[in-house]
Amino acid sequence: ASVEPMQRPVRFEHTRFLGDKRTQLVYDVDDWSDASVIDEIVAGYGAAARRLYQAGLDGVEVVASHGYLPAQFINPRVNRRTDGYNGDLQQRLRFLREVIAAVRANTDEQFIIGLRISADERDPEGLTEDEALAALAALDAGEAMDYVSVVAGTSATLAGWLGWQGLVGWA
Question: 81, exposed or middle or buried, with CB in 10 Å at 0-12, 13-18, 19+?
Fold first, then answer.
């Protein structure tokens, strides 16, 4: 199934190349009125993990850093949904929990699952250190993660990238 571009400005855009075919996927965490789009993306994480597992890789790292989609769900300033994916921290972690569960369901207990998270996106609208640490504390061993990789910065905004590069200060 294809994902059509939204009618208003978006927060997440990804262009990929498959052979000589260019495919552009456009997502906005706020605009999905139908949970089936979220279900499709979660299933995609699981399917990707299955392919890695079948190819003999040891594990995968779920990227919830640098302003990417899982980070957008966690961030209370970016996630303005009005359903069960926004509200308190537990609700904002729902998408990430579903992704991790899909990855585990498509692999086995020996397959390593890591999580990358920005402890500080270094942007006024980005995920803060306190928010990232609270999210990590809320995710427990029951989430089936084997390790956490903590980074800084975001590629979603110029301020987050420049802050990560040490080129500008931030408050």
Answer: buried
| Residue of 27, 45, 68, 85 marked active site | 68
Nearest residue to 152 via CA among 122, 108, 109: 122
Res 158 pLDDT > 60: no
pTM to 2 decimals?
A: 0.75
The confidence band for 30, taking pLDDT boundaries of 50, 70 and 90, is low
Q: What letter would DSSP give residue 1?
A: -
- Say which residue the tokens 């906005």 belong to: 28
Residues of the chain with pLDDT > 70: what percent? 68
Q: What are phi and psi of 54, to 5 degrees?
A: -65, -25
85 catalytic per annotation: no
Please choose, from the candidates 113, 97, 103, the residue with its C-alpha nearest in 3D space to the C-alpha of residue 45: 103
- For residues 61 and 113, give the distance between their C-alpha atoms in angstroms, rounded to a whole number: 6
Question: DSSP state, 86?
Answer: S
Find tokens 């609700």 and name the residue: 91
Reported as a single tens digit per residue, the pLDDT across 50-84 is 999 999 999 999 999 888 889 989 999 888 888 88
CA dist 21 and 23 (Å) reads 6
Check residue 95 and give left, alpha or beta (phi > 0: left; psi -120 to 50: alpha). Answer: alpha
